[in-house]
Inverse folding.
């Protein structure tokens, strides 16, 4: 009898969101948090990333060390170093196969707002960076029912070096 446990990879959300729900201004992040970038890299490295075309284009290139899966309705969209799919179901199926192949236990849903909305009922965990600011921006994180989630980790960081106060929070589906 083997003691090997194979975990089925679960979809998780990684997002930075302001106190008023903004995640972007349509072109770029409305803040710069070096600590958050390091945290995101640590959480996502080696895992498949599912993102929308606009999110990919705002980043400008595939994130190294991760399979980048880009969801778009544009059948002609192509970019070097990414996998292109045309709906969230196809993206999550491909991400599961990649995660199993690579031996990782998470599929990272990486944005933007519409991708988060489409994946919300499928994710088991959210890695949030709560930015303690109200910022202007047209791209918002979708509403979710807090009663469906349990906070399992929180690290509060005060304002420092031109970075706003923020919190690293992990939520697990109840």
């Amino acid at each position: 009898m083997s003691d090997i446990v194979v975990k089925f990879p679960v979809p998780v959300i990684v997002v930075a969101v302001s106190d008023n729900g903004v995640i972007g201004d349509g072109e770029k992040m409305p803040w710069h948090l070096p600590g958050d970038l390091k945290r995101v890299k640590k959480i996502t490295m080696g895992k498949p990333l599912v993102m929308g075309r606009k999110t990919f284009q705002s980043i400008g290139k595939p994130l190294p060390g991760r399979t980048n899966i880009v969801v778009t309705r544009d059948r002609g969209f192509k970019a070097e170093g990414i996998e292109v799919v045309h709906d969230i179901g196809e993206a999550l199926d491909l991400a599961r196969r990649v995660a199993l192949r690579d031996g990782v236990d998470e599929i990272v849903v990486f944005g933007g707002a519409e991708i988060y909305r489409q994946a919300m009922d499928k994710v088991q965990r959210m890695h949030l960076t709560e930015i303690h600011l109200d910022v202007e921006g047209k791209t918002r994180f979708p509403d979710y029912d807090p009663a469906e989630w349990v906070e399992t980790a929180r690290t509060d960081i005060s304002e420092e070096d031109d970075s706003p106060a923020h919190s690293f929070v992990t939520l697990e589906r109840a």
In short: The CA atoms of residues 54 and 124 lie 24 Å apart. The two ends are 32 Å apart (CA to CA). The mean pLDDT is 93.
